Each structure stands twice: as structure tokens, then as C-alpha cells.
Amino acid sequence: MLMRVSDRPGLQIPLFCVFLVIYGLTVAGNVGIITLTSVDAQLQTPMYFFLRHLAIINLGNSTVIAPKMLVNFLATKKTISYYGCAAQLGGFLVFIMAEIFMLAAMAYDRYVAICNPLLYTVVVSPQTCLLLASLTYLYSLTTALTVSSCVFSVSYCSSNVINHFYCDNVPLLALSCSETYNPETAVFTFSGTNLFFSIIIVLTSYFNIALAILRMRSSEGRWKAFSTCASHMMAVTVFYGTLLFMYLQPRTNHSLDTNKMASVFYTLVIPMLNPLIYSLRNKDVKDALKRFLDNPCHSLKIV
């Protein structure tokens, strides 16, 4: 049994409408980014390669959670099968881990572009981009399988009511009637380690970017360099801030109701916001959208 976002009966239909709109915007925005970065000749660069994969990840993350959540707003009996729950947890972990390291790869891309522009095409080659993306997905899948196996290795025999609107490791482990020290340690270790290393990559990249920008003599050059990474900085701040709040706290300090609100933010709101952040602040994406809308057939031919 899955709980709703809110238990107030009068809010179920309004919340269904709100989250249906959010999910619709998420699908439209991320499919739009995927399409534009795939078909427009001027967006065939490493920066937009990583942006395309971030959009794929955002779309996947939202799709793992939103459809079941929307059904539960209207359903009388809000159930999910045991194996369905395991699949949902696994899918959620794959996309969350992938987003963590895709954002780190995007930070590294911006670091090379601003700090070593003459070596950019050599260092961030198409082969390097494919390798980073492949390693991101492979590591995410491995981590998801490991953590999911740990969570579902314990016995569940006391209650079948999950205090969440999707299957997450913390509310699942709270239902266990056996020792949960090992799976909790595994969850905390993987979460902490992955966040630590990805944040180190992001902070190191942006520290060097900031130094490079400060050394520039031209104010126009400084502004141009800053504008190329402003959208990514905004997305990173929102995503990592929410994730740190969620997972790097002991189980005794967890408030499941507070975690529900944080989960809504990074599983549904952030995937909707990212296409807006990257398109509204990005002249290349806006120009590509205009070209595509003006002549979609020509856009498809030029790639």
C-alpha cells in the first residue's frame, strides 16, 4: 500500500491536476530538449550532448514516479506489487545516480571550455563524451542493483503500508521486521560516497572556472564565460541541495512527511525546471527552437 502526498480527501483532484500539469510540462520540455539537441546542426557540441542525456535522465526519473502517483490520486486502493515496488526503486536509483554524475560531467565540460579552450576539442572529444555517458549509466545501473538488493534482502512481515507516494529505501526499511543495519549502511555509504565525489568534481571545476573568469581583463569576456555556466550552476545548486537534505541525515532524524515534500521537488519539480533553466537562459537553444518551428523539415535535413 502506498500513501498519498496528502491524506486530505478534498485535495486529491486538485493535486492530481497540478501534478498532471507538472508531468506534462516535464515530458514536453525534456522531449523538446532531446529533439533539438539531436536534430539541430549547431547544437552538435559536447555541452549539448550532455544536456541531451540530462534531459533523458530527467524524463526517465519523472516517468518512474509520476504515472503511478497520478493513478493513486484517483484510485480507491493504492497498491503496488512487491516486484513492481522493487522495479520502481531500482529505476529511481538508476536515474538519480545518473543525474548526479551527468551534472558532474557537465561541470567538467564547462571547466575545460573556459579554462583550456584551445584543448577543448581534443580533451572533450566525441569519444570522451560517449565514454563518460556510458560509464555514468553503467555505474548507475550497478549501484541501483546493489542498493535495491540490499533493501529487499530484509524481511517484510509487519506492515505493508509504505509511508510514501513511491517505493524509496528509507520508508521501505522502516517496515522491516529484521535487522536493517547492513542495508542502511549500504544506502548511507553509496549515497554519501557518490554525492561526495560528484560534488568534489563540481566544486573543483567551478572554483577553477571562477579563477579563470576573474583573470579575464575584458568585462564582456567575463560575462560571456559566466553566462555559459550560469544555467548549470543554478541546476546543480537546486538538485544537490535537495539531495543532501534528503539522504545525508541519520534515520532517527528523518521526518517522512518532510521527505515527501523534498521527494516531490527532486523527482517531479526539478525535471520540469531543468528544460526551462537551460532553454530560457540559453540563446543557442532558443535560436534552435525558432529554426525548428520555422522549418522543421530543413532542421531534420541538416544533420
TrEMBL record:
SUPFAM superfamilies: Family A G protein-coupled receptor-like
Function: Putative odorant or sperm cell receptor.
Keywords, sorted A to Z: Cell membrane, G-protein coupled receptor, Glycoprotein, Membrane, Olfaction, Receptor, Sensory transduction, Transducer, Transmembrane, Transmembrane helix
InterPro entries from the UniProt entry: GPCR_Rhodpsn, GPCR_Rhodpsn_7TM, Olfact_rcpt
Name this polypeptide is given: Olfactory receptor
MF (Gene Ontology): G protein-coupled receptor activity; olfactory receptor activity
Locations listed in the record: Cell membrane
Highest classification ranks of the organism: Eukaryota, Metazoa, Chordata, Craniata, Vertebrata
Chain segments annotated as transmembrane: 12-37, 49-74, 80-106, 118-139, 195-214, 226-249, 261-280
Family according to the record: Belongs to the G-protein coupled receptor 1 family.
Assigned GO CC terms: plasma membrane
Domain G-protein coupled receptors family 1 profile: 29-278
Residue ranges the record marks as coiled coil: none
PANTHER family attached to this UniProt entry: OLFACTORY RECEPTOR (PTHR48018)
Membrane topology: Multi-pass membrane protein
Pfam families: 7tm_4
Gene3D superfamilies from the UniProt entry: Rhodopsin 7-helix transmembrane proteins
Predominant location: membrane
